[in-house]
Amino acid sequence: MSELTRRYFMLKAARGGVVTALAGASSCIHRVQAAGRHPLHAPAILRHAPPPKPVIMLDPGHGGKDPGAIGVSGTYEKHIAIAAATELRRMLLASGQYQVVLSRSDDHFIPLAGRVELAHKHRAALFISMHADALHQPQVRGASVYTLSGNASDKQTAALAETENSADRFAGHAGIGGVPAEVEAILNSLIHEETRRGSAHMAASVIQAFQNRVQLLHHPSRHAAFRVLKSGDIPSVLVEMGFMSNHLDEQALRRAAHRTQVAQAMKQAIDHYFQSRTNATL
Predict the structure, then answer these.
(1) Residue 185 and residue 176: Cα distance in Å, rounded?
(2) CA-CA distances (angstroms) from residue 72 to 46, 134, 144, 244, 250?
(3) CA–CA separation, 250 and 233 (whole Å)
(4) Where does the pLDDT of residue 96 fall: very low under 50, low under 70, confident under 90, or very high at 90 and above?
(5) Bridge-partner residues for 223, per DSSP?
(6) CB 250 within 8 A of CB 72
(7) Residues 220, 152: contact at Cβ < 8 Å?
(8) What pLDDT, on the 0 to 100 scale, is given for residue 45?
(9) Alpha helices, DSSP H only, in the chain?
(10) Closest CA to 165 of 202, 109, 103, 113
């Protein structure tokens, strides 16, 4: 055994990894011997290797002890959200173009900040939160898309954001880690401009795909301070597939065929989003 190998062994053993050190020493000897027989070459360059598939984080709203909105006939929003997200995931994976991660694949609760953390952990290129909330106006129906803003686009959206942001009450605390409101406002203002543009582009793609396929809310593109959208570097949108407070929306969302139609439109929007971004960089 050479002096270099002996020192390697002693260093590894000193760290408590005796077995690992033995294996490492043996491997080191083998590499040294092999190097003496064969000259080293530069690693091959894969000039035509396909680019990595973008990761899409689908976030079914609510879950576990948080049922979300409860429809006029008793349907839970959390069940509608996971059913639609699962169908969309199936379609996206079948296309072979994306990697897809669900923030939850079963009925359990995840705090709002935890959903954003998951998107960062998986290096998501796009974050889509899927919901079917309720309003105080049962006559209002239709799908809509929301992006992050410090100020709400209208009173209805402000109330909706307040309801969504209150989901963390099920985690035993309110707000984001006790951050003061003024600090949170400053952090919100620092969101990257590119991320804002990406979010707006995705929202427009969803609305375009929903037209003539899924009934839309009047002025369907809206914005407010949704905590679940507060990622500084991942384009994020919240899609309301309809409102559980409206009996027609609730009935539609209970049907698998309608959820499939929603998922197909959302896949079309995702395809358009990534195709247009790719073309813009060419």
Answers:
(1) 12
(2) 57, 9, 20, 7, 8
(3) 34
(4) very high
(5) 147
(6) yes
(7) no
(8) 59
(9) 3-14, 18-37, 77-95, 112-121, 155-165, 181-189, 193-210, 247-254, 256-281
(10) 113
CB 132 within 8 A of CB 240: yes
Strand 216-224 relative to strand 143-148, pairing: parallel
Tell me, what amino acid is at 179?
V
Copy the structure tokens of residue 165: 């942001």
pLDDT tens figures, 185-243? 555 554 567 888 999 999 999 999 999 899 999 999 998 888 888 777 899 999 999 99
180 backbone φψ class: left, alpha, beta (φ>0; ψ -120 to 50)? beta
Please choose, from the candidates 275, 238, 236, 268, the residue with its C-alpha nearest in 3D space to the C-alpha of residue 77: 238
The torsion angles phi and psi of 189, rounded to 5 degrees, stand at -75, -15
Give the sign of the dihedral formed by CA 143, CA 78, CA 260, CA 265.
positive
Q: Is the dihedral of CA 239, 109, 169, 173 positive or negative?
A: negative
The span from the CA of 48 to the CA of 189, in Å, is 40
Say how far apart CA 4 and CA 153 lie, in whole Å. 68
- Cα dihedral 122/186/190/53 (nearest 10): 10
- What does the alpha-carbon distance between residue 116 and residue 103 come to, in Å, rounded to a whole number? 9
- Split at pLDDT 50, 70, 90, the class of 150 is confident
- What residues have CB less than 8 Å from 45, skipping those under 6 apart? none
The angle, 0 to 180 degrees and rounded to 10, between the axes of the packed helices 247-254 and 256-281 is: 80
